[in-house]
Specification:
It is a single chain. The chain is an alpha/beta fold. The protein contains eleven helices and twelve strands. α5 packs parallel to α10 and α9 (about 255-275) runs antiparallel to α10. The longest helix is centred in the C-terminal third of the chain and has 19 residues, at about 255-275.
C-alpha cells in the first residue's frame, strides 16, 4: 500500500489542482458499467454545485478506460483513479473518498443519473438531523416510479427472507415484515428511516471519517446497509430525502446476475453475523445463512416467476 492508502499501482489523472479547496465532491466507483456510465458523467459535470468529480475505475474495458482518461485530460474537475484492479465497491468508495478533497461527499452509482437540485436537497436535509448523518435520495426507475430499495425498514434475516421470496407481499400474514417502503405515501419532507440506498447518498466528510467509511470486508452489496446501521448505532441518523431524486437504471453490470446475487448473499450473511448482539441472534444468523445464500442466488429465477416489484431495486 502507498503512504496515502491507495493500492500500489493506482494512479490519479489530474490536469490541475483547484485554486481553492472544493466544497462538494462526487465519488463514483466504476466496473464494466457499459454505456450508462457515459450518460451519467455529463449529468454530474453539468451540476453547478459539483467542484470535484472522483471516478475510481475498478476495471473498465480498454476502450472505456481510454475514454475516461480523455475526459480527465480535458475536464479540470474530473479526477480519475486507475490501475489498482477490481478492489470491490466498498474499498473503491473509501479510496475515492480519501482522494476527494471536498467537505461534502456524494456517493453515486455509475448507472445513476442525477436530477436537478438533487445534491442541494441532500446537503440541506442533513442540517436538521443528528450526526453522523447519512442522507439518501429518492431513487426512480426510468418511467418515473419509485424504485425498490430507496427507503427501507430494518434489514434482518427474517425480513430479508420474506422479502426475497416475495412472501411479505403475497401473503397478508407476512405483510408487516415487508421492509421496502416505495408503496407508502411519499413524505413531504425529509424523514428518518432505518436504511437508504447506496445508489445515491450524501455524508459530510467529517461524518464519513467518523464512521471509518465503508466496511471493506463487503465486496459488493450490503455495505450501504451496514453503514446505515453503524450511523444509527453511533447515535446518528439515516434520512430519506424525497426532494432529491436520481434515476437508477440497475442491472448494467456485465457480470452474470447470479454472480451479483451471490455477492449480495455473502454480504447479508456477514452483516447479520456482525450485528448479532446476543447468542440467540448469532445462532439465528448462522442457522439461516445457507437459506439466505440459496434464496439470493435464486433471485434471478424468482424475478422471472413473480416479476419485479417497482423495478430493479434491491
Amino acid at each position: 500500500m502507498s503512504s496515502d492508502f491507495r493500492p500500489i499501482g493506482a494512479s490519479i489523472v489530474l490536469t490541475q489542482l483547484p485554486s481553492e479547496p472544493p466544497e462538494v465532491s462526487v465519488v463514483m466507483v466504476v466496473y464494466r458499467t457499459g454505456p450508462a456510465l457515459f450518460n451519467a458523467i455529463p449529468r454530474v459535470l453539468a451540476e453547478p454545485l459539483v467542484d470535484e468529480f472522483v471516478v475510481v475505475d475498478n476495471g473498465s474495458t480498454p476502450e472505456d478506460e481510454a475514454t475516461l482518461r480523455a475526459i480527465a485530460e480535458h475536464e479540470p474537475r474530473f479526477r480519475l483513479v486507475q490501475g489498482h484492479g477490481n478492489i470491490g465497491f466498498a474499498r473503491g468508495c473509501n479510496l475515492g473518498a480519501r482522494t476527494a478533497k471536498g467537505h461534502h461527499l456524494v456517493i453515486l452509482n455509475p448507472d445513476a443519473y442525477l436530477q436537478q437540485g438533487c445534491i442541494a436537497s441532500l446537503i440541506q436535509a442533513a442540517k436538521s438531523f443528528p450526526s453522523p448523518c447519512v442522507v439518501g435520495a429518492r431513487v426512480l426507475n426510468s418511467d418515473g416510479t419509485e424504485q425498490r430499495g430507496g427507503r427501507r425498514g430494518e434489514v434482518t434475516p427474517v425480513t430479508t427472507l420474506l422479502s426475497f421470496s416475495h412472501l411479505s407481499l403475497s401473503l397478508r400474514l407476512f405483510r408487516k415484515f415487508e421492509i421496502h417502503m416505495e408503496d407508502q405515501l411519499l413524505p413531504d419532507r425529509p424523514i428518518a428511516v432505518p436504511t437508504i440506498s447506496g445508489a445515491c447518498f450524501y455524508m459530510s466528510r467529517e461524518d464519513f471519517q467518523k464512521l471509518g467509511g465503508f466496511d471493506e470486508r463487503y465486496f459488493l452489496h450490503v455495505e450501504d446497509v451496514d453503514l446505515c446501521w453503524r450511523a444509527r448505532r453511533m447515535g446518528g441518523s439515516v434520512v430519506f430525502q424525497p426532494a432529491a431524486t436520481v434515476e437508477h437504471l440497475g442491472s448494467t453490470s456485465l457480470k452474470h446476475p447470479v454472480v451479483v446475487e451471490y455477492h449480495k448473499g455473502r454480504g447479508l450473511v456477514r452483516y447479520f453475523r456482525k450485528r448479532a448482539d446476543n447468542p440467540w441472534r448469532y445462532m439465528l444468523a448462522v442457522g439461516l445463512s445457507p437459506l439466505i445464500m440459496a434464496v439470493s442466488v435464486m433471485r434471478p429465477a424468482l424475478r422471472s416467476i413473480f416479476g419485479q416489484t417497482r423495478g430493479k431495486g434491491k
